[in-house]
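Lecture notes, structural biology module. Today: joint structure prediction for complexes of four components.
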Amino acid sequence: MKPIIQNISKIISLTPEEETLFLSKIETKYFKAKTILLSSGEICKEGYFVNSGLLRSFNINDNIVEHVLSFACEGWWIGDMYSLLSQKRGNLFIEVLEDSEVEVLSKENQEQLYLEIPKLERFFRILIENSLIANQERLMDNLSLTAEERFEKFCKKHPTLVQKVPQKQIASFIGVTPEFFSKMKSKMLRK
Amino acid sequence: MKPIIQNISKIISLTPEEETLFLSKIETKYFKAKTILLSSGEICKEGYFVNSGLLRSFNINDNIVEHVLSFACEGWWIGDMYSLLSQKRGNLFIEVLEDSEVEVLSKENQEQLYLEIPKLERFFRILIENSLIANQERLMDNLSLTAEERFEKFCKKHPTLVQKVPQKQIASFIGVTPEFFSKMKSKMLRK
DNA sequence: AAAGTCACTTAATGTAGGTTAAGAAATTAT
DNA sequence: ATAATTTCTTAACCTACATTAAGTGACTTT
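The predicted structure, tokenised, for the full assembly:
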């Protein structure tokens, strides 16, 4: 069974016909590392489900500083929610960090699927609820924890990512500069 | 027409029967300022839609420092998403800041409504999508803007709230101490 | 109206994390 | 393999914001 179907089946159950219909609306694509799937200023027309590999979304501040909004590895969805929904120009980049196999679901097909398989409203509602919860927690963590504590939490929560992701991007995700992150890390090791 | 029905009608259309059914599942309540609707450590059993007045959700760090997650005034929904969804103990408080009139939707009734009016899946999906987008933006702002810039953005986005909410809670929302906020504000006025 | 609490201000001092810069190590490209 | 680019480290110095503390005014409570 395709990972994306497994992913959906964890939350709602699809009939074989619905599965087929769903699969007809997505497209499997392969991307090389460093491919930019979406740039700031563009309108996001599709969402991505990662079969294998690793993507990230980030923005760039004052044309200099990158801030990572999210990573997505196997079994995760990624997109620019703001732009995808509003169909206005967003300010996120979506980049492939490792050679990846990805299911592409266009905005258009997603809307059609909502009509053809109303159950999918439920699936995506729950998917987004979970995303919101994670985001709220991250927000509160940024307000109340030190960089060290945030890093520890990140390690516990995403042990695989810590191995795969370049260190400067973990720094960006938890909200510190690469220089400070490096200093902090070596300080933590010394304990 | 009840504000909560207006709120829903902006996104989906309900038949008169569906409206009646929906209304039968919510309860209008009146709360005095300072009422605590939910405490940290409790399981959140209901969501709130504000007809009038003002609520907030926040957590408390190390039994000392409060961090405001969100405000909700007229026309806004509020709840502890994490606890509401997982039915586990959350760490948020929900407090009434001004005497308020509120529509209460229990978790139980909400689940029933999803079955009886599947369109509501769509409504809440979109509601939560918007909430996620706002959260993501706030997260990125916290990573990339100064306190001053965050405050300016807050003022533009929520001009009514700036008038109503105690200053120390705006400070908490944008992520600084009340002391620093006070200093910052007087510095901004001097310009 | 007095007393107490709470919200806000101001100021001195402290610190987590930023900036700049330069070199070392690791990847990538030729 | 070598050069080129990128990532990581270290260190000196800097700043946005936190902490502590003390004082003022406003709102509650009795």
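Point to remember: Residues 41 and 139 of chain A are 25 Å apart (CA to CA).
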